[in-house]
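**Fold in C-alpha cells:**
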Amino acid sequence: MISDIRTERDAIFLLRCVFAWLIIFVVFRNLPSIDLGLTTLFCRGSATQAGLLCEGFAARESEVATVFRKLFYWIPVLAPFALLANIAWTGLRSGWADRETLRTRAILIGGFLLGPVLIVNGLLKTFSGRPRPHETIDFGGTLPFAAAGDFSGACIANCSFVSGEAASAGWLICLLPLLKGRFRTVSAAVIIDISIATPLLRVAMGGHYPSDVALGWIMGLASPAALSLLLIFRPIRISATLERAR
C-alpha cells in the first residue's frame, strides 16, 4: 500500500515537472530574445548608437561572487557522499531493517547520478553546442548566440545547455523531507536559499542563460522521482538488493 501511494505521488510529481519543463523550453526556444534581454540586465557595458555594448559581467569579476559560486557548487556535490555515509551507518546499526529509509536515501543518490551527472553533464552539456553568454558576441565573446535547444551552436565541450550547477541545486530541494530535529526549519531555509541563489548567480556571472538554469533546475528536482519510477520496471529493485545484503 505504501509503495503504491509513493509510486502515484512520484508519477504525479514527475508529470508536473515534465509539463513545466516543456512549457519553459517552448517559450525560450521560440522567444530567444527573452534569454538575451534578461542576461543583458547583468552585463556591464556602455551605451552606443547601436545599443548597449557589453564589456563583461561584474559578478564574474567579483571575488565574493566567486567564493559563493564555489561554495554552492560543492555543497550538492558532497551531499550524496553524506547520504552514502548515512546509509552505511544506519544499515550497520539496524542490520538493514529500516528498508524504507535506506531506499529513500539510495534513490536520492541515484537520482543525482541520473539527472545532474549523467543526463545534464554527461549528455546535454557535452553535445548541446550552446555557447555560454560570456562566450558569445552579444556579451563580449567571439561565438554566435544559439537559442535553447539549438544543437548547432559552436560550443565544443562543457556547453551552456543546460546548467549542471542549477540541476544540482534543484536536486537539493529533494533533501527537504529528510530534515528532522530542532534545526529543521533553519536547515530547510538554507537549502532553499542555496537552491535559488545558485542558478541566479550563474546567470549574473554570465555562465548560463536563464533558460539553461530554469530547465536544469527542474531536471535536478525531478530526477529522484524519475529514477524511482524507472526501478518499477526493473526485475531487481533496491529492496531486493538490501535483502541479499543482510
In short: Residues 2-245 form one domain. Residues 235-239 have pLDDT under 50 and may be disordered. The radius of gyration is 20 Å.
